[in-house]
Amino acid sequence: MGRELRNTYVLFLSELGKFTDIVTIPIKKRHPIDVIYWRDEFAIPTARYFIDRLNYKIYKRAYRFNKKKLSVITSYEKGIKTDRPHFHIAIERPESVLEANFHNYIHNIASKMHWAYGDIDIRRYRNQEFIRYMCKGNFERVLLEVCSKG
Q1: Taking Cα atoms as reference points, which of 126, 134, 148 lies closest to residue 19?
Q2: Does residue 113 surpass a pLDDT of 80?
Q3: Quick one: CA torsion of 140, 52, 133, 149, rounded to 10 degrees?
Q4: Given pLDDT bands bounded at 50, 70 and 90, which one contains residue 103?
Q5: N or C: which end of the chain has fewer CB within 10 A?
Q6: β-bridge mates for residue 90, sequence order
Q7: Contacts of 135 (CB under 8 A, 6+ apart)
Q8: Residue 101, pLDDT above cutoff 80
């Protein structure tokens, strides 16, 4: 991917919101109940499940009736060394929600996901470099179906 094209993608994605947090959710390779192995086509529904639950937890009825939602960028990739699938998510925390409460919501929702594996990582969003990292290699890693502008 050309450097100019990649910079255009990063600029486009960074304009979706004023992101505050970065979440990394590792994914199991095998479903614990249904004995189904992870496939890449599960990425969009699984990410959408997490984002929908978080939006509903924050905005309740306003989200349910399509009036409010969080600004979110979601990317999906597999680890180079471990081949472990995982999501990278940049999220804009609403000013009305305390940071500790927001992180608790994220942990609670991720713990209820059947595909989530181990501990999730939540960090503070600092600059566009993380969005550049999410686009590393190619833009196809970004799940545009799950991205939204709040």
Answers
A1: 126
A2: yes
A3: 90
A4: very high
A5: N
A6: 22, 73
A7: 6, 9, 10, 13, 75, 141, 142
A8: yes
Number of domains comprising the chain: 1
- Give the length of the chain: 150
Residues 6+ apart with CB under 8 A from 119: none
Q: What angle do CA 23, 12, 48 make, to 5 degrees?
A: 40
Here the CATH number for the domain that contains residue 25 is 3.30.70
C-alpha to C-alpha distance for 135 and 133, rounded to whole angstroms: 5
The pTM of the full predicted model, rounded to 2 decimals, is 0.85
Q: Which amino acid is at 127?
A: N
Distance of CA 114 to the CA centre of its chain: 16
For residue 150, tell me if it sits in a domain: no
CB distance 74 to 142 below 8 Å: yes
Going by C-beta distance under 8 Å and a sequence separation of 6 or more, which residues neighbour residue 7?
none
The answer to the question of residue 28 being in a domain is: yes
The verdict on residue 149 lying in a domain is no
Domain encompassing residue 17 = 3-141
Q: How far apart are CA 110 and CA 118, in angstroms?
A: 10
In contact, 22 and 123? CB cutoff 8 Å: yes
Is 146 within the bounds of a domain?
no
